[in-house]
Amino acid sequence: MNYTRAMAGIIKAFFRLRHPSFRIEQLGPPHVEAAASLLSQEFCEREPLCRQLGMNLGEIQPFFRGLVEKVAESGLGAVTLDRQNQLLGVVTIEDHFDLYEPNGELSEGLATIGSYLDQLKLPSEWVPRQRGEIYHCGLAAVARKVKNSPVLLMMILHQYPYLKARGYRGGYAKVTNRAIVKRFRKLEKLLRGDHFKCLLTAKPAEFEYKGNYPFSRYPGASYMFAWLMP
Q1: Strands annotated E in 76-230
Q2: Which of 3, 69, 138, 152 has its CA at a distance of 20 to 30 angstroms from the CA of residue 92?
């Protein structure tokens, strides 16, 4: 049985029944301002590593704006909108071999987080040979008013046929936020088998950066989830 397609159909049907006024689109230039703002705000307030470093919006907004602009140009990301075209959710998606590289200098906090995430590498058997094979789900945010609806999962599943049609055979995400980890763990149980799995687990508290342990007080873990398109 193709669990990925079966679960996608079930979740899409549930989503349409519960939120008939919402729609999902490709992330494009018209969404850049709102998407960058939502991602920056949610990252600053909810991302555990960001909170550990006490970062503020001013430190991260330029980076997020540049990232969203690049994703909008590629057309790989997704957004959820209501009837008034208000942004309810966003997810950035990039090709593994074409990840965003900021032009300017990063703040110390973002450089620290980036260095930590960079050392969480795909196992050799998952590394693609060329562009267009594996994509990276980098950042995601859902507006507070949406509460516990499956918007995040819907955006990822919405991209499944689109990305597969472009030749992608799988994707991956690096996750520390506990709420998102919980959602991925549920998806892992639902899809079973080898098409969706946790490839690695790491403890930020053990990460050394410039002779220090910037996340030493963080008790949680980070995970890399990956999935294949059957």
Answers
A1: 78-81, 87-95, 134-142, 170-175, 196-202, 222-228
A2: 3
